[in-house]
C-alpha cells in the first residue's frame, strides 16, 4: 500500500497546488494558457523523443508485450466508440474527454509502481510497453478530436490528416521511434537537454489540471466520469490479463502490462483537450476523480499481482 501512496501522492499534490495557486491568484491567470502551450508544443514532445529514442529491446518478450498493449488500447477505444454511438446526445467535446479518460494512462504512476514491485527489469518492461502504446494512443486521441470537435458531424479526412501530421505529440513519437530504429544515438548533450525539458512536462501539466478544476464539475460530468472509470479500472485490467495469458507472458512482463492498464488516465489529456478545443472542464474532472479512485483500485491490482 505504501508503494501506491508514494506513487499517487505527488500527482494529487501537484493538482492541488495548481488549484490553490489559481484560486489565490498568486500567479496571473494569463500564465496558465501559456504554460499549457509550452507543455503541449515543447515539453511533452521532448519527453517522448527522449523516452523512445534510446530503448534497446534485445531479447525481451517484446512481441507478446506489443500484442497485449496494442490490443487493449484498440479494444478500449472500440468500447468508447460503441458507447458514444448509443448515446448520441453527448457533445463532441465531452466525448473526447470520455475517450481520453478511457484510453490514456498515467505513465509516471505505472513506471513508479513497476519499479517498486519488479525492480529495474520491471521498470524497463513497463517503459517498453508504454513506448509501444504512445503512437497508437496519440493517433486515436487526435483522430477523436478531429472527427467530433468542430467537424459539423461529418468526417473531414483532410482535417484529420492535417491534425495528425501537425500534432506535436505524434511528431515526437515518430522522431523517437525513427531514432530508435536507425540505431543512431543522440549526442549526450542533446539527450540530456531533452530529458531535462521532458521532466518539466509532468509537473506543469498537473498544475494546469488543478488550475482548471471546478468543485461542481464532478457532479456535472458524472456520466462520462462513471463510464471512463468503468473502462479504465475494470475493462482494461481484465482485457490486459486475458491478452497476457493468451500471448504467454509471465512474471515481470505480465505484471508490467497489467500495471499499465490499472492506473488512472494521463494528465496530458487535459493539455490536448485545451489545445484541440475539447471540453477541458470534464477532462479535468475525470483526471482528478480517477487519480483519487486509484487509491482504492490499485491495491486490489497489486494484491492480485503478488
From TrEMBL:
TM helices/strands, residue ranges: 62-86, 123-147, 168-186, 192-213, 249-272, 284-305
Location in or out of the cell: Membrane
Location, primary (coarse class): membrane
UniProt cross-references to InterPro entries, sorted A to Z: Mem_transp_PIN-like (IPR004776)
Highest taxon above the source species: Bacteria
Membrane topology: Multi-pass membrane protein
UniProt entry tagged with the keyword Transmembrane helix: yes
Protein keywords: Cell membrane, Membrane, Transmembrane, Transmembrane helix, Transport
Name of protein: AEC family transporter
Lineage, top ranks: Bacteria, Pseudomonadati, Thermodesulfobacteriota, Desulfuromonadia, Geobacterales
